[in-house]
Amino acid sequence: MWQKKGLVYLCDILGTGYAQDPFIDVLSDDVWRIYFSSRTKDIISLPFYMDVEAGNPFNILSVSKEPLFLPGYSGTFDDSGITMTSIVNCGDYKYIYYCGWNKEVTVPYSLGIGLAIVYGDKVDRKFDGPVMSRSPYDPICVSAPYVIKEGNIFRMWYITFTEWKDYNGRMEPTFVIKTAYSYDGIKWESVNKPCFKGKYEGESFARPCVVKDGIYKMWYSSRGPEGYREKNGDHYMIGYAESNNGENFKREPINITTSESGWDSEMLCYANVIKWKGYYHMLYNGNNFGKTGFGYAIKKL
Question: How crowded is residue 254: how many other Cβ atoms within 10 Å of its Cβ?
């Protein structure tokens, strides 16, 4: 059973409150670094981090005041925003994988997957272009990469849009989760099939997070096709699935739900889970896709 511990951080860096897609980098037995993205008033996502006491993220040690890196120059895949989603330790450096945002004309936006490199406290974009983008098999966009390293192989779980559809005058996307492989973390080969299917037409799955613990354990966010932006709509909830090979997942029950009131009373989304010192530790967003900040939950192994 997951134990919700409460709201960790309500971001005020950019004056909007957003602290989206948090994820943990274990720096030591004493310190965790939590990466997250905040939004400007012009709805441009920018990357930040905070250091907290390991195992007690309510004890905030420091918060970065400036973005780690900025959107790309005009015309590049990330010229309209950056949303980080995972980090991989590669020895002397680390890779951060992120979503790059582009504004579009016929639909609101498109997304590609970018790569940044971390040396200590310094983070730099590795390429001006994406490491994964539209392709014959993912023709609309790809996003929300979660990457782990198994020996010499990098494994990614990501979302890909299957369609945009008009719901009462508003274009909304439907998306699924796929997986991909790489030998260097840069060139990727997709397994061109969804990890699992929706239970109803238009169900979408966002931000996968995978822990290899004997089997592959995935936490993801699920929502309905329309009305999910409204207070009483079919909002995101955190789901859970398991797999023996990391490709074919079976959805399983998860014992975590919305609170009766407060910051996470309407939705739960964008979970990040790590295994550390006898517990699973989860960071997640609540109402309005992270505008109310992010919280913390734990579950005993």
Answer: 18
